[in-house]
Write a structure and sequence with these properties.
alpha+beta; 2 domains; Glutaredoxin
Length: 184
């Protein structure tokens, strides 16, 4: 059918779904997910496989400064490794856990609390110095006392600008009276 999203799980491509992900703390720089498709331990890896399949895009969207690696078929037990800014690392063992248990454990251990996320968003929005597409002012020219944008007001004609350049002394040591000395 035309117009419908394609893929195995089309919901994971929507902006609303991506915005619901876990925000990791600022100190996290690298996150690795280790799991396998072993026939002997297939059930113990099913939770992390679901996380990789459904929530990896959320992690990438909500944490653009974190490098995320998926390492498959290298270890017999599934786990997460988090590398911090100060060089430390820690592991979260997820063997035998389902997707919801894994996500709640990550949120509890290394995720930012909801209150902190709300405070940061309020602090960013309330600052009147911010301008851009997501803020109240689109451009700095909208602030009182700033020069207007050139596309809003007309630029002076070329002849007037040339006259201004003649009368402005850009190097006062060389041109004392505003024009070149003929003696030197």
């Amino acid at each position: 059918m035309k117009g419908l999203m394609s893929g195995k799980h089309p919901i994971i491509k929507t902006k609303q779904y991506l915005d619901q992900g876990i925000v990791l703390r600022d100190g996290v720089k690298i996150m690795t997910m280790h799991y396998g498709n072993y026939e002997s331990n297939y059930e113990s890896h099913s939770g992390i496989r679901k996380v990789v399949e459904l929530n990896l895009s959320q992690f990438q969207h909500k944490n653009p400064d974190v490098q995320i690696l998926v390492i498959k078929d290298l270890t017999p037990s599934p786990f997460f490794t988090f590398f911090l800014e100060n060089g430390e690392r820690f592991y979260i063992d997820v063997e035998g856990k389902n997707q919801v248990e894994i996500l709640s454990q990550i949120q509890k251990v290394i995720g930012k609390p909801k209150e902190l996320i709300e405070k940061e968003s309020i602090a960013a929005e309330a600052n009147p110095a911010n301008f851009g597409p997501e803020f109240n002012r689109k451009c700095i020219c909208e602030v009182q006392g700033q020069l207007p944008c050139s596309f809003v007001d007309d630029v002076w004609p070329i002849l007037e600008r040339k006259e201004l350049k003649k009368n402005i002394n850009l190097n006062p040591k060389k041109y004392v009276f505003g024009m070149e000395d003929e003696d030197t």
